[in-house]
Specification:
alpha+beta; single chain; six-stranded antiparallel beta barrel; about 180 residues; 5 helices
Length: about 180
């Protein structure tokens, strides 16, 4: 089984920093832009934020414009069984991914979540490969179970949720 992010060296410090309000103010402006630039320069081989958390580049059509929107996102890969386990060995062992609309603990839902609600068919770039996917908003007991797994995977999500009144949207994306 792969190591969860919280067991990697140096991650606890990153978790503490990422839980601060200062990080929530700065990160949305810096992290995605830096991720997009490095991802483009390395032809999809490197996603900086994925050094701490697994990540994808989501390409979804804009909810109103219909234009393609590229957004780097942290994700929680799931094994083929959909049991919430962190992915195993190769790319083929990932059956689905959980996308988290935390918006770094800011008050509004991130725009990409509205895009997926309006247009659930999208594409992700996972480890340099483009994969057509379909997204589904999680609700009820299914969402609760995934949320518990997410908090084990990356505890700062609890801080983000405590900071906002909205329920953080969770999407499961699966290959089309």
């Amino acid at each position: 089984m792969a190591m969860t992010p919280s067991r990697r060296p140096g991650v606890r410090l990153v978790q503490r920093v990422s839980s601060t309000r200062g990080f929530a103010k700065v990160a949305p402006h810096v992290v995605p832009a830096l991720d997009r630039a490095v991802h483009r320069l390395t032809r999809g081989k490197v996603l900086l934020s994925a050094r701490m958390l697994p990540g994808v580049i989501l390409t979804a059509r804009g909810a109103r414009s219909g234009l393609p929107r590229r957004t780097p996102l942290a994700c929680m890969p799931e094994g083929r069984t959909g049991d919430g386990a962190v992915e195993g060995g190769g790319e083929g062992s990932v059956g689905s991914w959980i996308l988290i609309g935390s918006n770094f603990g800011r008050t509004d839902h991130p725009a990409w979540t509205a895009n997926l609600l309006a247009h659930p068919d999208a594409e992700i770039n996972w480890r340099g490969r483009d994969i057509p996917v379909t997204a589904r908003l999680l609700a009820g007991a299914e969402r609760d179970a995934v949320w518990r797994a997410l908090l084990e995977f990356w505890p700062p999500y609890a801080t983000y949720q405590a900071r906002v009144e909205r329920e953080i949207r969770l999407f499961r994306i699966v290959r089309r």
